[in-house]
Amino acid sequence: REPASRSPEAGSSNENIESIFYKFVILHAENDVDEAIRIQNLLQNKFCIKPGIIFAEMPCGKHILENLSDAVNGSAWTIILLTESFLKGPWCEFQSYTCLANALNKEHKYNTVIPVRPLNNPLPRKKTPFALQAINALEEDSPAFANQVERIFQESIYRQQQEIWRRER
Predict the structure, then answer these.
(1) N or C end of the chain: smaller count of CB under 10 Å?
(2) Chain centre to alpha carbon of residue 27
(3) What is the pTM of this model?
(4) Cβ(153)–Cβ(77) under 8 Å?
């Protein structure tokens, strides 16, 4: 599989992935890589929300929990891809609870967890884990999707998050 191409804003080709502060990271089920790439490309190409990364693109050789921490803390928004595959393993649920706990424990991460129901294989609302039901999910098939994306992914919030990230490093 070919990962989504890096934007020029993501830095030079020799720049380490950990030195980039992403606008978003997409957490996804293992077999939803293609759908995660599609959503990543949609956000980057149609809505110009760059740079973004999917969890499958995180560096190899690190413990998976360290990669999860780096992904969540190294991006302004955490997108949870709600597909039918989301419930098939405990890892996705763990990822979502970790993100929610992070958003509660770090004031600057409040309102940064974004559940997304994609067009392909969406998780029905009635099957959504209780903790995620409290957050309005972006629904790709909604006529308001474009407006919601523009309202959520504000450049000023990204810059604030990026500055906090720089100070904490």
Answers:
(1) N
(2) 5
(3) 0.85
(4) yes
Which pair of tokens denotes residue 158?
A: 């990204």
138-167: pLDDT as tens digits: 999 999 999 999 999 999 999 999 999 999
- Architecture of the structural domain at 22-168: 3-Layer(aba) Sandwich (3.40)
Q: How crowded is residue 127: how many other Cβ atoms within 10 Å of its Cβ?
A: 11
91 class by beta-carbon count within 10 Å (0-12 exposed, 13-18 middle, 19+ buried): middle
d(C-alpha 122, C-alpha 138), whole Å: 11
d(CA 80, CA 97): 10
Give a three-class secondary structure readout of the chain: CCCCCCCHHHCCCCCCHHHCCEEEEEECCHHHHHHHHHHHHHHHHHCCCCCEEEHHHCCCCCCHHHHHHHHHHCEEEEEEECEHHHHHCHHHHHHHHHHHHHHHHCHHHCCCEEEEECCCCECCHHHCCHHHHCCCCEECCCCCHHHHHHHHCCHHHHHHHHHHHHHHC
Average pLDDT over residues 85-110: 80
